[in-house]
Specification:
about 500 residues; 20 helices; about 75% helix; Tripartite tricarboxylate transporter permease; transmembrane helix; DUF112_TM; membrane; transmembrane
């Protein structure tokens, strides 16, 4: 009951006119930045950090939190409409969302995304308010061996289980790990695969990889397919973004499953919301195969948008709780929020709730208000965003190319990044031509450094004894579940191959 009392007091502080203004500004700015390819909520917080020196701490953090969630809402908009997610957290939503857009249901996909983000964020924030003391216990259970097992689980789940072909999935995984290894080795300081170029010392930015594979690769593939044999087609973007009762009932289990994936991942530093969103997408894909859904992977299925979107915002909600309760930034945006706290001379952690309750509880209350504002902003205007698909293809994809290049160049003002963008775009084009899945490349590039670092840390602690990798119940459970998932996937693929052979005989 103490938490409920504190939360009600927080609403009193958050519902002042000036704080509501900061909430609205943050929601609009976060959504706008999230829509731009290559940018995201972390960059928005970084750019606005100097501006808030003149604001009081409560107003500044309320605006930052609104930007945080607004960026996640906006990231999915670009991914659904243009197949160019604004941030890596929206990659999984893009797969089915863009297919829905191409089949004339862009507004419905955007509406599903907004509702999923609202449900996932609201449930996660509610859990943070009432169960923040238990976040400490959850996070302290994970050591280097557990993080490594989690990364391996994600690798196998995406490459061997979610992908249609195990071989192609493993090829894509290898490509992603190769990209992740470029740069200076964090342990020894040695150069790896840098070709002696200083521009590669910091590695290849995940923004460059994401935009190159998804945006430039898609542009080249569309240009390749729009040759002489392709009839002219016009995308119909009409429709309502609001879900009717049948559609909402279909999507609700996916919303809840995605939230269940996202909530625990926000409290542990595994690189952000990429893992739970991909796991949510993989789960919905397997369930669609089981019920023989003809839309999933073809015209786009509403569950394939609902699950990952709820997972992404649920992760963001518990990540905020982990930051406040533990001082543990579990994503890039949370790390920027930590820098903002330090700017005001405060250190997030268990004592923050006691020493700065007048800041923490209005901040948590503002998350609920911000999610409502974002739903109001995004849901009614989904059909307006969908009008982008009425732009002729040659103008639309030329604009995507320009904005993608500008977004990548804005990160470090590096022409090397632009050449890399082109090279990775050509790789993405080749992968589409030869039906090699993109998701394993992205998840390997994101989690590869984490897997390498935690493996070396675990072996250093055990003085080279590999038994430490299976020395805790968490690691054993993860590896057992992974083995069962791989076995089930192989059996399912063998059955599908036998059915095809029988039908062709």
């Amino acid at each position: 009951m103490d938490q409920l009392t504190h939360l009600l007091e927080g609403f009193q502080g958050a519902l002042t006119p000036i704080n509501l203004l900061w909430l609205l500004i943050g929601a609009v700015l976060g959504t706008a930045v999230g829509v731009l390819p290559g940018l995201g909520s972390a960059m928005a917080v970084a750019l606005l950090l100097p501006v808030t020196f003149s604001l009081d701490p409560t107003g500044a953090f309320i605006m930052f939190a609104s930007i945080y969630f607004g960026g996640l809402f906006g990231d999915s908009t670009a991914g659904i409409l243009l197949n160019t997610p604004g941030n890596s957290s929206a990659i999984a939503t893009t797969f089915e969302g863009h297919r829905m857009a191409l089949s004339g249901r862009a507004a419905k996909a955007l509406g599903t995304s907004a509702i999923g983000a609202f449900i996932g964020g609201t449930i996660a924030t509610t859990l943070v308010v009432f169960f923040s003391p238990y976040l400490v216990t959850l996070a302290t259970l994970f050591g280097p061996a557990e993080y490594f097992a989690l990364a391996v689980f994600a690798f196998v789940a995406i490459s061997a289980v979610v992908a249609e072909s195990v071989v192609r999935g493993l090829i894509a995984l290898g490509l992603g790990l190769c990209l992740a290894l470029v740069g200076i080795d964090s342990q020894s300081g040695a150069e790896r695969f840098t070709l002696g170029l200083p521009a590669f010392f910091d590695g290849i930015s995940i923004i460059v990889i994401t935009v190159g594979l998804l945006a430039i690769g898609e542009v080249l593939h569309v240009a390749h397919r729009s040759g002489a044999d392709q009839p002219a087609s016009r995308v119909v973007a009409a429709g309502s973004p609001f879900l009717n009762w049948r559609e909402f009932r279909t999507a609700l289990p996916a919303f809840l499953r995605g939230t269940a994936f996202g909530v625990p991942f926000g409290a542990i530093p595994v690189g952000g919301s990429e893992v739970p969103t991909f796991l949510a997408y993989g789960t919905e894909k397997k369930l669609a195969q089981r019920r023989a859904d003809p839309d999933f992977g073809v015209r786009g299925a509403i569950q394939g948008v609902a699950g990952p979107e709820a997972a992404g915002n649920a992760t963001a909600g518990t990540a905020m709780g982990a930051l406040l309760a533990l001082g543990l930034p579990t994503s890039a945006t949370a790390a920027m929020m930590l820098a903002a706290f330090q700017q005001y001379g405060m250190q997030p952690g268990p004592l923050l709730f006691e020493r700065s309750a007048d800041l923490v509880w209005p901040l948590l209350a503002s998350l609920f208000i911000g999610l409502v504002i974002l739903l109001i902003i995004n849901l009614p205007f989904a059909a307006v965003w969908a009008k982008l698909l009425l732009v002729p293809k040659h103008y639309l994809y030329a604009g995507i190319t320009v904005f993608a290049a500008l977004g990548v160049y804005a990160i470090a003002s590096s022409t090397t990044d632009l050449w890399l963008l082109l090279g990775i775009g050509l790789l993405g084009f080749a992968m589409r031509v030869y039906s090699i899945p993109l998701a394993p490349v992205l998840i390997a590039a994101i989690l590869g450094p984490l897997a390498e670092t935690t493996l070396r840390q675990a072996l250093a602690v055990s003085e080279g004894d590999p038994a430490i990798l299976v020395s805790s119940p968490i690691t054993v459970v993860l590896y057992i579940v992974m083995g069962l998932a791989v076995a089930a996937s192989i059996v399912q693929q063998l059955r599908a191959r036998r059915r095809r052979a029988t039908s062709s005989a």
